[in-house]
């Protein structure tokens, strides 16, 4: 018996693939918190290798193709967080770190935009972070670059400029939990699947944005993104 929807289903959320007319369908977005030691310190935490923690954004929070970032309501302190993004083309449970690379389709550059004032209030009250992290347009993301083309970078500068001035700078070799380790641990908590994205954490230097700012960020050997705060 065929199903009849009571209203039209939304089309899938997709990301462009650099150099291709194909697009990558997105299932879920996982984010790793405090995965660079210097960022952990600036947020007032011990950077030792405590088990990583995760939160999620929604697929339709993505801003692809260089779109603008509309400043969200109910916040006066919205921060930038530049990140390496990993895209999976197959999933599973309890994936060994030694096999994690075979699950990766490619990489991108993303921004985990954060309502820092809302996040701070949620922390004080012991409440979830969704309103601070998973709001509309909170995940600008570049086109994906297939691993079949660039391999699996182990190092490379990660950086963000606002209006031409460097505000965040680090190297992806400074990740507390490497990409394979992150995939392995995440797969013990969730059954990962094709279409999942992982935002892997941000280096130090996070700070506020204002309407009119131009954000330009990148990861060496992977790509860059640009978005305007409107």
UniProtKB/TrEMBL annotation:
A Pfam family: FAA_hydrolase
EC number: 3.7.1.20
Presence of the UniProt keyword Hydrolase in the record: yes
Database matches in InterPro entries: Fumarylacetoacetase-like_C, Fumarylacetoacetase_C_sf
Superkingdom in the source lineage: Bacteria
Keyword Hydrolase recorded: yes
Fumarylacetoacetase-like C-terminal domain residues: 29-230
Keywords of the record: Hydrolase, Metal-binding, Pyruvate
GO MF terms, alphabetically ordered: acetylpyruvate hydrolase activity; fumarylpyruvate hydrolase activity; metal ion binding
Top EC group: hydrolase
Matching PANTHER family: ACYLPYRUVASE (PTHR11820), FLUTATHIONE S-TRANSFERASE (PTHR11820:SF90)
Protein name per UniProt: Fumarylpyruvate hydrolase
Species this protein is from: Pseudochrobactrum saccharolyticum
Lineage, top ranks: Bacteria, Pseudomonadati, Pseudomonadota, Alphaproteobacteria, Hyphomicrobiales
């Amino acid at each position: 018996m065929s199903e009849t929807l009571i209203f039209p289903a939304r089309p899938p959320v997709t990301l462009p693939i650099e150099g291709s007319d194909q697009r990558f369908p997105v299932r879920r977005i996982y984010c790793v918190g405090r995965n660079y030691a210097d960022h952990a310190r600036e947020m007032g935490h011990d950077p030792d290798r405590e088990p990583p923690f995760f939160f999620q954004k929604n697929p339709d929070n993505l801003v692809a193709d260089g779109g603008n970032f509309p400043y969200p309501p109910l916040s006066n302190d919205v921060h930038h967080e530049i990140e390496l993004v990993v895209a999976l083309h197959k999933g599973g449970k309890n994936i060994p770190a030694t096999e994690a690379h075979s699950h990766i389709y490619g990489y991108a550059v993303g921004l985990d935009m954060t309502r820092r004032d809302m996040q701070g209030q949620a922390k004080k009250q012991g409440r979830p972070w969704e309103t601070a992290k998973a709001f509309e347009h909170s995940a600008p993301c570049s086109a994906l670059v297939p691993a079949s083309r660039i391999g699996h970078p182990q190092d490379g500068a990660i950086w963000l400029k606002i209006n031409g001035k460097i505000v965040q700078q680090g190297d992806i070799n400074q990740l507390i939990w490497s990409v394979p380790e992150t995939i392995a641990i995440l797969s013990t908590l969730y059954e990962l699947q094709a279409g999942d994205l992982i935002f892997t954490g941000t280096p130090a230097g996070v700070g506020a944005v204002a309407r009119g700012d131009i954000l330009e960020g990148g990861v060496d050997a992977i790509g860059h993104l640009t978005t305007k705060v409107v």
